[in-house]
Amino acid sequence: MARAESPVEERGTSAAWREHRGAALDREGTFRVIECEACGFRHVVPLPDAEELRDVYRHEYYAVEKPLYLERSREDEPWWRVVHGERFETFEELLGPGRRRALDVGSGPGVFLAVGEERGWETLGVEPSEQAAAYARGRGLDVVEHFLAPELAPELGTFDAVHLNEVLEHLPDPRGHLALCRELLSPGGVICVAVPNDHRPFQAVLREAAGYAPWWVAPPHHLNYFDFDSLARLFESAGFEVVRRETSFPIDLFLLMGEDYVGDDALGRSCHARRRRFEERMEAAGAGGLKRALYAKLAELGIGRHAILYGRKT
Ligand SMILES: [Zn+2]
Question: How far is the CA of 211 from the centre of ligand 1 (A)?
């Protein structure tokens, strides 16, 4: 992997950009991914303007950038229900009885909230996208159409569980966001963060052995590129003790076996359908526990599509 050792010098629009320094790993357009010494995780520089990003996520993200997202979420809902059901199982195990208030930050189409309500949880979603918030409200779910912001936090109350699924990689200040989540948790409350597990071992194999470019680098939507270790460091610095480490299916197995879905949406959907079938068959056979044990082993190896950490408020 080529590494430029010189500090990054581009001028960004973020006021704090000068503090972000480290070896550049990848480049995409005008962005570089750096191993940021100040932050302790990889992220792009220059960081886009926070206000511009907020406009994109409010009005455009599901309408322009991800027009098929809500439709695909409907197609995939039975599978998502299993994924989110397992997250609630873990929350329930870690929290014990009687603690059943959950906040979903970036609640999207609301499947996590719906699953929680059915399990007897009291749930609230925060979602900046007007399309996604309207969709979830149409299902009778309680969703605040907003970003999780310091001025909003005091109005939300406190929670035993806070969930962020594929949110932290999009945010210019993930540490500040986790600090806000911490304020919203009751003593001993638990946070679950799922982010893409990037620069993971199988991606390195694909770069070395098959000449793949870093296809996962996707600014300005993905600003941060976490792995298990950098996410764990961020948790600790934000006042959380890591109590569980999970992952999802290592989707790049398909690439390693020659199914080149990068840039091929139809093949990507087909590979997704196959891993869904694997998980659904395991569930149908009552082998969901075996699947989770397998994924826990993959998480120990740093392999798997997502880095999923649970942290307890310290
Ligand atoms: Zn940084």
Answer: 28
pTM of the model: 0.91
Q: How many A from CA of 177 to the centre of ligand 1? A: 15
- Between the CA of 302 and the centroid of ligand 1 the distance, in Å, is 22
Please report which confidence band the pLDDT of residue 18 belongs to, taking 50, 70 and 90 as the band edges: low
Q: How far does the centroid of ligand 1 lie from the alpha carbon of residue 178, in Å?
A: 15
Return the closest-CA partner of residue 248 out of 225, 228, 267.
Answer: 228
Query: What is the Å distance from ligand 1's center to 217 Cα?
Result: 16
pLDDT tens digits, residue range 162-196? 999 999 999 999 999 999 999 999 999 999 999 99
> Residue 133 CB: number of other CB atoms within 10 A?
24
Q: Share the mean pLDDT of the chain.
A: 91
- Compute the distance from residue 223 Cα to the ligand 1 centre, in Å: 10
Tell me the CA–centroid distance for residue 309 and ligand 1, in Å.
Answer: 21
CA of 43 to the centre of ligand 1 (A): 7
Tokens representing 67 are: 């027009």
Compute, in angstroms, the gap from residue 21 CA to the centroid of ligand 1. 6
CB within 8 Å of 81: residues ≥ 6 apart: 111, 114, 115
Q: String of b and e for 222-240 (b: at least 16 CB within 10 Å)?
A: bbbbbbbebbbebbeebbb
Both tokens of 133, joined, read: 């918030």
Beta carbons within 8 Å of 55's beta carbon, 6+ residues apart: none
Question: Which pair of structure tokens corresponds to residue 230?
Answer: 């950098």
Nearest to 132 by CA among 211, 196, 178, 72: 72
